[in-house]
Amino acid sequence: MKSMEISSGLRRTLLLAAALGVAALAPAGVSAETILGAMAKAYENNPDLNAARAGLRATDEGVAIAKSGYRPTIAGSASVSGKRVDGGGRPVTVDSLDSSVGVTFTQSLFDGFRTRNNVRAAQANVFGGRQSLLNTEMTILLSAAQIYANVVRDARIVRVRRQNLEFLREQRNAAQARFDVGEGTRTDIALARAQLESARASLLSAQAQYKSSVAVYVQIIGIAPKNLKSPSPTRKAIPGSSSSAVEIGLREHPNILSAQYSVDAAAFKVKAAEGALLPSVSLSGSVSHADGGTTSGSVSAALSVPVYQGGAASATVRQAKETLGRARMLVDSARREVQQNIVTDWAQLEASKASTAANVARVQAAQLALQGVVEERKVGQSTTLDVLETQSNVLSAQESLAQSRRDAVVASYSLLSSMGRLTVSRLGLGVAKYRPEKHYDAVKDKWFGLRTVDGR
Fold first, then answer.
1. Are 325 and 269 in contact (CB under 8 A)?
2. Which positions ≥6 away from 356 have C-beta within 8 Å?
3. Contact call for residues 122 and 371 (beta carbons, < 8 A)
4. Alpha helix positions (H), 379-449
């Protein structure tokens, strides 16, 4: 009679474990946060991204600095002088006190096209900086997707390990009950206890990993995760073949575009350096007013023709040309890197999808095997060790499925990033897109003013 009660209890335990295992594999219900929602929060709040935006705003000012070469420089001056007379032992007296004020200005009329080329180089740096900012945005969005998937995976692993711990606790109790009625051995009890303690240690390890992922989530997203919805691999903007993906990446990826703008900037820098070998013309003038109502002014033009500058100008030109050559090489390097990343991410996405399908089948088969081993143990064809090993296979399959699902999600977003399409507009995040051209338009032609556009 007791044996029948024990078998009935084991059956209920097994059914409960199987039901919980299925629940662990099913997607979470409607929740307060999705992977796109987390990415939107990172886009708005991530400090690294905000720092990159500030860096681009500083680059914008390079255009205004370069344009200053077109404008005059004006300086004011004032002087006071006194004449002291020594009276030969008598008190010192001031014989006279003179003062004057004046204004001078200088305007460059021709500087060998250096200002023009410096302006164009600064503009190319701005356009390249925008592409670098876009790449930083994609990096942050990909990091947000990765940590979101990591937290979901780690939470699922904690859940299945907790279920495994409960199952093994029941197995230990059942082994003790069978021993008490003379149907089991101390070896069965020891095996069940060993597996139980191992499961407890594994659960603690999984909980530590989950907490670590949560900390990274807060760092990237800005808030703690809560009720995360299980994500799926994205299909947005992904073409049907890897070759098409490579073509898109070579055409659209911001790293390549930024490198091309760097080539433009370097080419203009070569021309600006060559301008130092050309003549320059400047206009200068001054107006001064002294005591007694005397006012004077002068205007002059100067022509300067460089003859020999100690070799510095020539070396600067050669240096600029080498920098240009390096920039061109970096374009090729960027293209190869983009191509390699796309091919790798495409293969990873296909592999993780196949692995997910295989692990789903593996979990189902492992659970059926566990049911069969438990039934066999009832009739003496299997042992407690067989049950414990089969349950270990179920746990391994569930954790492998959690990992492959995570890998598929991350690979899909990583592929979008490698193609240059992991952007706010492509993803439809529903947040206000940062528009760097607004700041550029506000500062590119400013003649004066110390405050930034936002009032600082």
1. no
2. 401, 404, 405, 408
3. no
4. 384-419, 424-427, 436-443
> What is each CA distance from 278 to 318, 321, 323, 430, in whole angstroms?
16, 18, 21, 54
* Nearest C-alpha neighbor of 100 from the set 73, 77, 118, 117: 77
Single out the residue of 189, 186, 162, 164 nearest to residue 174, CA to CA: 189
Percentage of the residues of the chain whose pLDDT score is greater than 70: 89
Element (H, E) at 109: strand 93-110
Residue 297 neighbours by CB under 8 Å, 6+ apart: 285, 286, 287, 288
**Domains defined along the chain, listed by start:** 2-73+113-278+328-431+438-443 (1.20.1600.10)
Q: How far apart are CA 74 and CA 453, in angstroms?
A: 25
For residue 66, the tally of other CB atoms under 10 A from its CB is 23
d(C-alpha 103, C-alpha 105), whole Å: 7
How many angstroms separate the CA atoms of 115 and 70, rounded? Answer: 7
Other residues' Cβ atoms within 10 Å of the Cβ of residue 89: 5
What is the overall mean pLDDT for the chain?
87
Give exposure, 150-173, as e/b (b: 16+ Cβ within 10 Å): bbbbbbbbbbbbbbbbebbebbbb
Return the residue matching tokens 């200088």.
106
**Rounded CA gap, 147 and 209, in Å?**
12
47-88 pLDDT per residue, tens = 999 999 999 999 999 999 999 999 999 999 888 877 666 655
pLDDT digits 0-9 by tens, 244-283: 999 999 999 999 999 999 999 999 999 999 999 999 999 9
Rounded to an integer, the average pLDDT of 281-296 is: 86
**pTM for the full model?**
0.84
Which 8-state DSSP code applies to residue 231? P
Whole-angstrom CA distances from 171 to 135, 376, 382 are 53, 15, 14
